[in-house]
Write a structure and sequence with these properties.
This protein has 514 residues and is of the alpha/beta class. It has three domains: 220 residues, P-loop containing nucleotide triphosphate hydrolases (Rossmann fold, 3-Layer(aba) Sandwich); 68 residues, no CATH class; 159 residues, Rossmann fold. The chain is globular, with a radius of gyration of 26 Å.
């Protein structure tokens, strides 16, 4: 295939997409301009499709020094991170859920911020972005409803100015969740005035009314920390007061300055990014894409021409028909098989699921053996014989059965429980019907669980399984660390065509005696 045919196929692919005509026109015009001066990542992609696996001797100028990750990485994850940090134009990191892709991506983002690189981070599901909320600097999340600079001004007013980022503690202190509750503007004003007038014992007595559930020793520790951190807390309050007095003109000027800042991390979903054509003209040192298996070829080429280096993280599905035109295959799947091995790496170790869960689950969702590496403590429910369990429920009574199951659990487990649904209506029903003792339980649709996890996952299987995408099933099956309990019609969900038919669940069914 020559380059002219590549762009012709890409144009036909865009014309057949369900994108709005206006956005199609805008995308094609931008690609038309971009192909006149392709970036290194774009050149690698075009050459790979046209001529097969290629390796470019030309390198980027990122020049990252060796870094020490803040959290321990496995040997496999370290290799993937080093590939992402290298001066190659592109890096593709593939792996099934729980293999550490997000952990590697956040380490990469932190390194880029530390070394003053301009970065763009995009995902498919908005829930996945939560992993990046604590990045250093001032990460700004895109919005589909406002232009970028206006959105920055809104976030400055509602988030950054309302609670300035002074969340660090001296190195001798561990993170203190109770102390964090005292760092809102109103509480800072109250407790800083008390700090200047009360001794340690008086301060401890005052804290009793604020935290009646804390022990005497814990209150003493909290009072002592407040006294030691008084200068830091005073500085935070001063910043809050200063920001409150900033004029609207000042906020808009600062927002414009931040929008043009080369070190401001920009985060959002691909859909949100597509709604900000002003960012299409911004050049980034590093473009990081999570859940890249959801990218169309047009989106991939648009993003590849945005930066000096493109790093893709995703879960590939093997291509069965090697003779299909490239535009009729998933872009990430295609690259996983055709990109030069120098640019790609596959993660084959998982760190989330209990071994009794991981073996049957990964056998069902992956064509390759996934090694389990976990040394954490596991939860144990004595009333259950198996960690991977299917509660066979008929007549669309899954919701009722899940609520009944909750009554068999200790409410102390609430913060470690999660309910996964396949539709928003069902999610909302659970939120309305949830017993008071389990209000801290997390409930969400499959897309809302992307990038999240819990110790005990309850999966509500209603509707038609044939309508679900494979990626949705993979997310649902890999959220529970210690237990995955599915509720639904077993025969329906195990029939031919169901994505769950390859998973060997331990089946339980209630029997009514006449």
């Amino acid at each position: 295939m020559n380059e002219a045919l590549f762009w012709q196929n890409l144009q036909h692919h865009l014309a057949a997409s369900d994108t709005t005509p206006e956005l199609k026109q805008r995308q094609w015009e931008w690609l038309g301009e971009a192909k006149q001066q392709l970036t290194l990542p774009s050149q690698v992609l075009v050459e790979t499709v046209c001529r097969g696996a290629v390796y470019f001797s030309v390198q980027t100028n990122l020049n990252f020094p060796a870094i020490t990750p803040l959290r321990t990485l496995s040997a496999s994850q370290t290799i993937a991170l080093e590939m992402a940090l290298s001066n190659s134009a592109i890096a593709l990191i593939s792996g099934v859920p729980a293999t550490g892709k997000t952990r590697i991506a956040t380490h990469l983002a932190e390194a880029a911020i530390t070394h003053n690189k301009r970065i763009l981070i995009l995902t498919h599901h908005s829930a996945t972005l939560q992993a990046y909320a604590t990045l250093s600097g001032y990460p700004f999340f895109l919005s589909q409803s406002q232009p970028y600079s206006e959105w920055i001004a809104t976030q400055l007013r509602e988030k950054h100015f309302a609670q300035p980022q002074i969340d660090y503690l001296p190195p001798q202190f561990l993170p203190d969740s109770e102390l964090a509750k005292l760092r809102t503007p109103g509480k800072l004003e109250k407790w800083l005035s008390l700090l200047s007038s009360q001794c340690l014992e008086q301060l401890k007595e005052s804290l009793t009314s604020e935290f009646p559930y804390l022990s005497s020793h814990r209150l003493t520790l909290l009072a002592d920390r407040l006294q030691q951190l008084e200068p830091l807390l005073q500085e935070q309050l001063s910043l809050i007061q200063l920001y409150r007095n900033l004029s609207e003109t000042g906020i808009l000027e600062l927002a414009q300055h931040l929008a043009e800042s080369p070190t401001l991390p920009i985060l959002g979903t691909v859909a949100q990014w597509l709604q900000h054509p002003e960012l299409w003209e911004t050049f980034f040192d590093l473009v990081i894409i999570e859940e890249a298996e959801s990218l169309s070829w047009v989106e991939l080429m648009l993003l590849a021409n945005l930066g000096e280096k493109l790093v893709l993280f995703g879960d590939a599905t093997p291509i069965t028909d090697q003779h299909q035109p490239f535009t009729q295959t998933n872009s990430f799947d295609y690259l996983t098989q055709h990109l030069s091995p120098a640019y790609r790496y596959t993660l084959k170790e998982q760190f989330r699921l209990h071994p009794e869960l991981s073996v049957p689950v990964y056998r069902g969702i992956s064509s390759e053996w996934i090694q389990t590496q976990t040394a954490r403590l596991s939860y144990h429910l004595p009333q259950l014989w198996h960690r991977l369990l299917w509660q066979d429920v008929r007549n669309q009574t899954e919701e009722k059965r899940i609520l009944e199951f909750l009554t068999t659990l200790n409410p102390d487990y609430a913060t470690h429980l999660g309910i996964i649904t396949f539709c928003a209506t069902q999610r909302d029903w659970f939120r309305d019907q949830l017993p008071d003792a389990f209000t801290q339980l997390t409930i969400g649709t499959v897309s809302e669980w992307a990038g999240q996890e819990c110790a005990i996952a309850l999966l509500c299987c209603t509707g038609n399984p044939a309508t679900l995408r494979t990626n949705e099933i993979k997310i649902a099956l890999t959220r529970g660390q210690d237990y995955l309990i599915a509720f639904g019609d077993y025969d329906l969900w195990q029939q031919l065509g169901s994505p769950l038919r390859h998973i060997k669940f331990n089946r339980e069914r209630r029997v009514a005696l006449a």
